[in-house]
Structure formats: structure tokens, C-alpha cells
Amino acid sequence: MKKKLLSVVLASAMLTGTLAGCGSGGSSSAPADNGGSAETGTETAAADTAGDTAGDTAGADAQADAGKVINIYSFNDELRTRITAVYSAIENTSEDGTVSTLNDGTEIHWIINPNQDGVYQDKLDEALMNQASAADDDKVDLFAAEIDYIVKYTDADVDAAMPLSDLGINPDTDLADQYAFTKTVASDQNGVQRASTWQACPGVLVYRRDIAKDVWGTDDPVEIGKKTADWATMKTTAEELKAKGYYTFSCYADTFRTYGNNIASPWVESGSTTIKVDQKILDWVTDSKEWMDAGYFDPTVSGQWNAEWFTAMSSSAKVFAYLFPAWGIDTQVKPNWDGEAGGWAVTNAPLSYNWGGTYLLAATGTDNPGHVKDIIMALTGDKDNLTKVAKEYTEFTNAQSVMDAAASSDEFKSDFLNQNPYGYFADSLASIKMAPLSSYDQGCVELIQNAFGDYLKGQIDFDTAKANFETAIKERYPEITEIQWP
Amino acid sequence: MKTKGYNSFRTVFAYVLLIFLSFLCLFFFYILIINATHSHAELQRGFHALPGSSFLENFNNVANNGEFPMIRGIVNSLIVSGCSAAICIYFSALTAYGLYAYDFKLKKFAFTFIMAILVMPTQVTAMGFLRLITKMGMYDSLLPLIIPSIASPAVFYFMYSYLESSLPLSLVEAARIDGSQEFRTFNQIVLPIMKPAMAVQAIFTFVGSWNNYFVPALVIQSKEKMTVPILIALLRGADYMNRDMGKIYMMILVAIVPIILIYLFLSKYIIAGVTLGGVKG
Amino acid sequence: MLFVQKKRKLVSYAKWGYIFILPFFASFFIFSLIPLVDTIRYSFYEYFRSGIKEIGPNFIGMKNYASLIQSDMLKYAGNTLILWLIGFIPQIVIALTLASWFVDVRMKIRCQQFFKVVIYLPNLIMASAFAMLFFTLFSTKGPVNSILMSLGIIGEAIDFMRTALGVRSLVGIMNFLMWFGNTTIMLMAAIMGISPDIFEASEIDGCNSVQRFFRITLPLIRPILAYTLITSIIGGLQMFDVPQILTNGQGNPDRTSMTLIMFLNSHLRSKNYGMAGALSVYLFIVSGILCFIVYRITNDDDPDGSKAAARKNKRGRR
């Protein structure tokens, strides 16, 4: 199968010459960089081999950019709010949220498409394939990628994203305060960092204080933490909650990340066309079935991100807890909570896990490298900004020095949680073993939850669910030839 | 007397069923309208029978949402449906007239051919269509949604049957004797005669195009060119949108209101048009 | 002399015939025929996009066809059939009943115009918006469940979207609602076209209304019934918008509501041109067979039904 990949056509413009031997000529030739930036103009293949960025200084000069429009692709409005909050060059944003104007007259166009069912990636891929021939103002300049599919875009052979060093960012010095694992995730197979994120996403357990009080007479995170220490204890806890008429979690999908983030090998090995389903995933199925049958999940909720799932976060619901990293608390729980502030609290999850992380990537061929560099640095490499984001949005930001201090500082206390949650985030982070990634993760996660959702709801048997997953994944990714089960 | 009793029982039953069916048809729109006037928090608490006060707020949220530009979508849909309907009925009438009024060698073949492609689903050519318009540089534009409606076999056939029943060829001959050019004859004499048929088909083509989802979803990529059905589908996939159900209901409402308004004004003609199709010709 | 002159005249006008039908055929040739040929051609190739790389085209003969047969294609064909039947059977029964009532002079149904306007209304609703509406209305915490629960009809929420029966019923109800009004009005027109003399004669012979319906009305409107059936089958084959939006393209649960066109759409979405091409060819063959049946039925028994069929077919009835 790998042989077939030789006939690969690379459609994005290539800035560096490393790929000359690999592309099948034609569509991928002309370096489309017509931006005036000195860094990009003089970049050579040598820069690709990591580390060689010493000559870079803060020379990125936004004024030198030729482009008048910066196109930013993303999958929800989170990125826009974050960039708007920290990028001081933004003067105003239009009422409908599609255009922001910078103080030098350049416009940022926000192009947002939903993640689900691969829609965002479809649209982004379409744009990246046309990158070489697109007019300057239509080129993708900056795009967001989730940890579930970032590998697809950081791939050095595809070269869809520029190495940060080509932008004039030295990852070793400029981004030294970032967590090491985020830098690993953001790097291609040669270790060249091509992306950068403002968040690390250690998961915790966020629970309703009123339910805790009702069941155990206390809502103290330390006490509750003892009851959620591991999966065995968790089961006793679930039984106690059930006795009082509460559900522990809203649905089977909520616990998925604690398993999914602890898989031993990636879904698909690099270069392979075989999906290997990890034993941990099947553990999730068996455990979820047990929990489902025991009545620890809310039966009216099927999967995440639907109206029922959100409604289960409101005060009228009977769901005790959600498993979320910091972003989930701010962007999911908070908007759906209709009770008093301080109604929720954070404690340790039964198992540490990382869930998500939005990375910024500079599209190869951008005509605004100066602005793109400024934005990436402002959001992911500026200590003051990362402090601000953490304080304002209770975000676990990608700045070790800030986060280390946050747990003991009253300034980082969250009103919504009525506590300082950073200690729990940090503990979770310390024991995360980052799962090996592949570019197929999003499809695999989405489709395995979908296929086994039917099984967990008692609609089909186990083998049918397996077969349905195989069918669906092959439809989504035609190059997949085989699915191996443990 | 027995028959009379039976008949009045039948009549009562008929009314019950009719009222029930009407209820079914209208009930969903009732919920839709009611829910579009409530805020998300109110909707989370369950269903309310009476309208709430968030109508304007929801509407403003929808109108000001750049991520799902509904207003822009309605304008696009109006452009596509309007143009499709216009060129579809004009060229169908032209083709029908060409095959009806003239004698030529391939006439029979052309007619049979159109009949043969009548039931061909558009979906089977979708893949080639997509590649073709990409090559022609019309990917992600509204044109490929409009131009192909020139060839609409079904509309052609309706026009043809109508011509058969209402255009005496002697009229065409008379126009020729008066020195009228062929195109002028068509535009000034034949078209006015065909007005009723064209009006009916214009409405149906418009509605068909307004509701079309499969092809536009494949062709259109960028937000500012999306038509209403694509936006609705995008909305269905946008998980995080579920955080504001009031807005979702309002979007659905906005998507279907234009057609409902047109229908309420033209219901007489539309129903007459369906009837016209049902009467054997 | 006269003969020659007439012939010349015909020839000179023939040019206009070709000119007048040219736009239609040009448009058809470019936008349907070329794509069709292209579709068939690539059905023999391995040709897809993997992320941002394109694989192929590599000629692989009939492999796409073979793997489609081995896949769940036939299951989806079955789904399509079931979803169509669930909508069509009540549709034709109700439509026939209503149509015969509407034209029955002895029943004198009042407010006919109002009922006609109302029952035809759903036909004009955008199928995608209608499906989206049903999705929100029938969710476990949606209005329908909350109304049923507050009336005490059900104890706990029904999860419509998680059972095959639930999803299929919803699709069936939507298709029924969208099309029964249209069918009713058409059948009514057909029944009104029957000569009143026949009904009068039957009455003198002592026919009751049930006998009259089955012995006279039904046989006489057979052409239009055949037309309704055929256009409905073709519309059913193309069923897409409603189940696609309702299940977000997944055909849940257990792919029991995945239709053939949804299957095609998922291949087109992942830019799997080869597979999509082969599936299109299968669909083309099926609709070709249906088309043949149309002409057999309409040409043998009812030259007029075909005309009616032609008129309404394009509206893709379900």
C-alpha cells in the first residue's frame, strides 16, 4: 500500500525544497510566497532540519507583509475570542464576528466550520490544496488544528504548515516556557516544531456541589477527591449516587478520554494503512456497558455535544459530574449552568488524561508571515497574555512558570468553581502519559463512539458494532485496508 | 334512512380525520414558532405552550451570526431559485415549441431522447459533474446550480402537452404570413399563450431549487455562497451550537418562512397547478 | 410544383427547430452527459483523496464494483425500500380516502379550500429544515417528549433517535406529511375527471359507497395511481435529505436508516471518486430498469398516465 503513496500529489505550495523528489511535479511546483517578509524569502531547506534558527531575532515585521487579508481557519469561536483578547493590534471586530480590523488596516477574516463529521478538515483541505493558485487575499494564513488530527498537518512530507523557525520564531528560546509534551505534539517526524498552542489540557473531574452535599453532606474537593480516586472507588461512589437518584456521568462518551488517552500504540502507525484498535478502547466498551446496565449514566443522553448532553449540565438535571480539562469547564459547563456561580467544583479524575488542545499553524504560502508570527507569539509565547487568559477564562495555559505559581495564588481563584482549581490541573498534568497520535484520531474516536454507542444502548450486539466501525472508518478514510482488534 | 345515518357517520369520521391531519401538519410549525420566541434557559426547562419574549433577541442573534449567515443564505437561495426558475421555464418552453412547431429529421429522436432521460436521477452524474465544474473553474460558485436547469425534461414535457392543447399551428402560420421572425413569433405570440403553464412550472421549479440540498452541498464551499439548505445541514453538524436552542429554532424558522409566505399568497394557483398535473391531458 | 415548394418551406424552417432545441441539448450534453461518461470511466479506477494527498487514478477494472457488492450496499438498498414503504403506504391510503371524500357530493365537506391549503403546506417545506426541526422536536429532552410526559402518556422519555423503529418512523412520518397532500389533490382531480354519468348509473344499480369506490373509482383512476406509484418509487430511490439531516449522515442506529444516496454522498464527501463512480453506475442501472417499467406500464395500459408522470416527476416525490 505504501507504494501507492508514491503517486502522491502535493497541492499546497512548497516553500522549501525538501520535497522535490517526492512530489509528482506539476501542481506543486511554484513557491507561492509573494509576501515581502525577509525571513520567508530567504528560507532554505536547511532550516527544515531543526534548530537552525539562531539568526532570527524579533525581526518579523508586520508592515512588510504584502497581504491585506489574514484568513484564519478554525472550528469554533474559541480561537477568535482568545486571539481578540490578547492580540493588541486588533482594533475592532464586526458584529457578526466574521471580520476583525487591525490598526494597520489589515483585516482578519475568521472562517469557522464545525469539527464534527470532518467538515472542518474538508473545508480546510480544500483551501490548502488550492493554496498555490489562490489569490493573495484568499490564501489560508493561519489555521487551527486539534490534537486529534494535528499530525496530518504537521507532517513534513505534506508541508502544509511552516516550521516555526521559518516564521522567525525560535522554539527553543521564544517558546521555552511551553510544556514539553505540547512541543512534541506540535513537531513533525523530524522534530521540527510547526505548531504552537496556548493551552495544555490535563483533565479533571468537575462536579455539582449541591449533589455532593445531598449525598455525602460535604462538597469539599479533598473529600470528594477520595471518592473519585480510581475506577474501583468510583464504582462505590456511583452506587451511592444512584441510591439518591443521581447519575454519576451523563453518558458513556464522557469517560472515553480517560481510556483513549492512555492507549499504548497509535490508532494507525505512521505510513501504515492498518488501524489497530487498542485493548484500552475495548476496556472502555466493557466498562461502559457495565456502568450503563448498572444505571450510572443518564439514559436520555446519547453521546456528547448534543442538546441533551448540554441540558444535563443545567440545575434541573441529575448528573453529578463531567470529565473535562480546563477549557471544558469554561466553554461547556459554564454557559449551560443556570444556577448560582460557585455551584461546581473541581477534583481529581479517576485516571489522568489529556483531552484536546488547539494548536496554531502557519499555512505554507501565507502572504502575511509577519502578522501570523505576531499572532502566534501573542497567544502562545507571551507570558503576560497567558497569565491574562488563565485568569480570565480559567484556562490551563501553556506557560510552565505561570502555572506553577497559579496553584498557590489567590488571583487565580475561579468564581464559577469557588476554588482555585490549578492544583488539580497540575497534579493531573504531572501523571499524564501522552498517547501516541495519528492523523486518523478524530475519525477513529468519533466513529468508535458512534458504532459502540448503538451497542451500549442495547440496539446491536458487540460484533455488529465492530463491523459497523470497520465500514464507517473505511468510508471516511478510503486508504484504510485493515482493522485489527486486540 | 339507514344510508343517511351511515353517511352522517362517515362525514363525522371524515372531519375527525381531516382535523387530525391538519393538526399534524400545523402542530410542528406551532412548536417551532413558539420555541423560536424562547431563550435557551427557558427551553432547557421544558416546553411552553405560550410564546416567550425572546423573539427579537433570537432573531438578532441569527441575523448577526457570521458563522451561519442565514440572511446571506436566503439571498443566495433567492438568486439561485429565481434564476433557475426563469431560465428553466424559458428554455423549456423554447424547446417544447421547437419540437412542437417544426418538422425536422431528428425531431422524433430528440423527443424520445428527452423522454428517456426523464427519470434519470441527478445524483448518478454528481461525481462527474463535480469534476467537470472544477475543471471549468465553476467550483464554489452559484452558476453550476443555475445553468443546468436549462435542460429540465419534466418541465419540457409539461410545456409540450400544454402547447398541444392550446396552440393552434395556424396561429404560427398567420404570424409568418405577417412577416414575423421565428424568434419574435415565439416571444410575442407563443409565450403569452403559455403564461398559465409557465406560471405553474415557475413556482414548482423555484420551490424545487429552493429546497435542493444534494448538489449545492457538493459544489459550494465558502460561507458567503451557501444556500439555506447547506446552512441548515452545517447547523446540524455544529455541536457547540446546541448551547443556544432558541437560536437554532429561529434559524429553522427563518429558513422556511419565505416559502410559506409565498405559498400563502399563491396557494390558490399552486393547488390549481397540482390539479392541472393530475387531470389527464 | 406545389409539392416542391412546400418541401423547401419545411426545410427552411427545420433550421429553427434545431436552433430552438439547441440550448436544451447543449446544456444536457455538458452538464449531464459528460459527467455521466466521466462517472462511468472513473468507476474502473482507484482514485481518492487521502487528507491532502491524492491517490490514483490507477486502473483496477471491476474491483470497485466487486467491493461494493461485498459491502453493505444491498442492506442500504433494503433500508431505502423500507423507509419508502413506511411513508408511501399510509400516504396512498389516506390520499385515496381523502380524495374520495372531497369529491363525494353527499358528504359536502366544508372548508375544503382550507383543508387543501393546510395538507399541501408541508410539501413546500425545505426537507432539510423539516428534518432539522424533527430532530430537535423529538430529542429525548425535546418538546414532544416533554409534552407526552406532562400529559402522563409516557412515564419516561422515548429515545426516538436510538432505535431503528424510532428513526425509521420519523423518516416515514416526514415523508408522509410532505407528500400526502400533494397526492390527495392529484387523485381528486383524477376522480373529478370521471364522468358523473357513471356514478349516477351505479347509484341506480344500487351500489353503495364502498362498492362504488372499489368497483368504479379505483379502476378508472388506475393510470394516475400507476403514475403516483412510479414517481414515488423514483423519488424513494433518491431519498436523501431527510435521513441525512436527521441522523447527521450516520444512518443511526446500526446504519438502519442509511439510504443509497447517503452512501453515495459519504463516498463523494471523502472524495472517493472511484467508489462513488461505481455506486453511481449501479444506481443508474436500477433507475434505468425502473424507467423501463414506467414505459411498459404507461405505454401498454395508459398513454395518458405517462404524460401526467412526466409533468410531476421532476419534483422527486417520495
Describe the structure.
- Chain A is α/β, with parallel strands linked by helices.
- Helix content of chain A is 37%, strand content 12%.
- Chain A contains 20 helices and 13 strands.
- Chain A has a seven-stranded mixed beta sheet with strand order 3-4-5-2-6-12-7, sandwiched between helices. In chain A, strands 10-8-11 form a three-stranded antiparallel beta sheet. Chain A has a two-stranded parallel ribbon with strand order 9-13.
- The longest helix of chain A is centred in the middle third of the chain and has 16 residues, at 279-294.
- Chain A is globular.
- Chain A starts with 8 loop residues before the first strand and ends with a strand.
- Residues 1-61 of chain A have low confidence and may be disordered.
- Chain B is mainly α and 281 residues long.
- Chain B has two domains: 2-55; 66-237, MetI-like (MetI-like fold, Orthogonal Bundle).
- By secondary structure, chain C is mainly alpha-helical.
- Chain C has a two-stranded antiparallel sheet with strand order 1-2.
- Chain C has 14 helices and two strands; from the N terminus they run H-E-E-H-H-H-H-H-H-H-H-H-H-H-H-H.
- Chain C is globular and about 75 Å long.
- Chain C has helices at residues 2-42, 63-70, 73-103, 112-120, 127-137, 143-150, 164-192, 196-204, 209-220, 222-237, 241-246, 260-269, 273-301, 303-313; strands at residues 45-50, 53-59.
- Chains in contact: A-B, A-C, B-C.
- At the A-B interface, strand 5, helix 3, helix 13 and helix 14 of A face loops of B.
Notable traits:
heterotrimer; A: 486 residues; alpha/beta; D-Maltodextrin-Binding Protein, domain 2; 2 domains; 7-stranded mixed β-sheet; 3-stranded antiparallel β-sheet; 20 helices; 37% helix; globular; disordered N terminus; B: 281 residues; MetI-like fold
Please, how many domains of chain B?
2
Might you state the CATH topology name of the domain at 57-125 and 168-313 in chain C?
MetI-like fold
- Quaternary state of this entry equals heterotrimer
| Amount of beta strand of chain C | under 5%
| Global geometry of chain B | globular
Could you tell me which chain pair has the largest interface and how many residues each side has?
A: B-C, 105 and 110 residues
Q: What is the global morphology of chain C?
A: globular
Task: Give the class-level CATH name of the domain at 57-125 and 168-313 in chain C.
Answer: Mainly Alpha
**H/E series of chain C, N to C?**
HEEHHHHHHHHHHHHH
- Classified in CATH, the superfamily of the largest domain in chain B is MetI-like
Mean pLDDT of chain C: 83
- The end-to-end span of chain B amounts to 40 Å
Q: For the report, how would you describe the main beta sheet of chain B?
A: none
Q: Which structural class fits the helix and strand makeup of chain B?
A: mainly alpha
**Mean residue pLDDT of chain B:** 85
The total of beta strands of chain B comes to 0
Q: Please give the CATH architecture of the largest domain in chain B.
A: Orthogonal Bundle
- How would you name the CATH homologous superfamily of the domain at 57-125 and 168-313 in chain C? MetI-like
Regions with little confidence, pLDDT below 50 for 5+ residues of chain C: 1-11, 301-318
From the 3D coordinates, which CATH architecture of the domain at 57-125 and 168-313 in chain C would you assign? Orthogonal Bundle
Count, helices of chain B? 13
